[in-house]
Specification:
429 residues, mainly alpha
Amino acid sequence: MELTVLALSFTVLLLLGVPVAFAIGLSSVATIIAAGLPVAVVFQKMVGGMQVFSFLAIPFFVFAGELMLYGGIAERIVRFANSLVGHVRGGLGMSNVVGCTLFGGVAGSPLADVSAMGSVMIPLMKKEGYDADYAVNVTTHAALVGAIMPTSHNLIIFTLATSGIASISIVGLILAGLIPAILLTLCNLAAAYWVAVKRGYPTHGAFPGWREVGLAFAAAMPGLLVVVIILGGILSGVFTATESASIAVAWALLITTVVYRSLSWKNFLKACAKACKTTGVVLLLIGISAAFGYFMALYEVPQKTGELMQSVSSEPWVIFLMINVLLFLLGTFLDMAATILICTPIFMPIAMQFGMDPLQFGIVMLINCALGLNTPPVGSVQFVGCAIGEISVGQVMRSIAPFYGALGVCLLLVTYVPAFSLWLPGLMK
């Protein structure tokens, strides 16, 4: 009875358009009342869920990304990417993919990535004769790489969601995401090139030479070094994964104020306000999802879901496929943080039961959640890209298939070839 109340109330509230955080909280309260337990249990679980030391990394990583966004890093990355691949057919699209990947590694946020790179690249691509739907699709899909880069706060959220299920090393998770990030970039490049050839987009001049590439790289390098500093510092033991987030903020401030001198006081205040807002939303989701997760554990939702899946098939590849499909569908309705917090306790035990490593599952989860960011009705990354490109979501969706296909190929490879996500972490053991 209580489980039915939990599921139905949550579903109905989402369909009514209630924000996800409030839908989770209200459905938890409804379940508490149906079970005859004190309502204070919900608030105890919420407070307990937010009191985790490692969560200090979330506001710092978010703030570092906002500083990079407002500090003018994007323009230098665009110049470097364009000098490297701009001479290929559909060169601006290829430059867009490389630029978004590099900025995603710096900012660690798909939304910040599409906001920064899209504001530069989408209008430029339209001016050079590229169709708006192509410009938006290239940008929004390339921006998703930021979700699995070392500076992504979603890695921290996933490690929280695995509490009590498996012991996950944040360092291992960071390393597990590096090769899939490269693979995802290559898939995006292939899709961008294929569509460019099919539509007959032009090349943009000859290769400028390695000297120009070197100069562009030198200009962009101070911003890009944040990834190297974080990885190097964590792996060498100079600082922990949580402390690395504060190092990222200090480096972002140094680069944008002293080296580039591109961060104005007005934009600094904007970055502070945006970081506070994002952090508040994420922590609210974390707290409420802790209460929601308590009820799922209490009423054995993971076990019952696993039994249902096993009634369909006992083949691991079928189970993994079903998990991917369900995660993708849920990701189209839920924000990324909410999907991670709600779905990890349900699907991770099932995946582990059928032989999937927790680190591998983490990357599979993050890629699925990232794909949901670019899918209506809650596709925040897609909405931002469409707003910049001045085109409707419907028009973009009509030509999205090649890019979905590229992400699908990457997702299947990471799901069924464990080495893509486990080789680097294995080297550190």
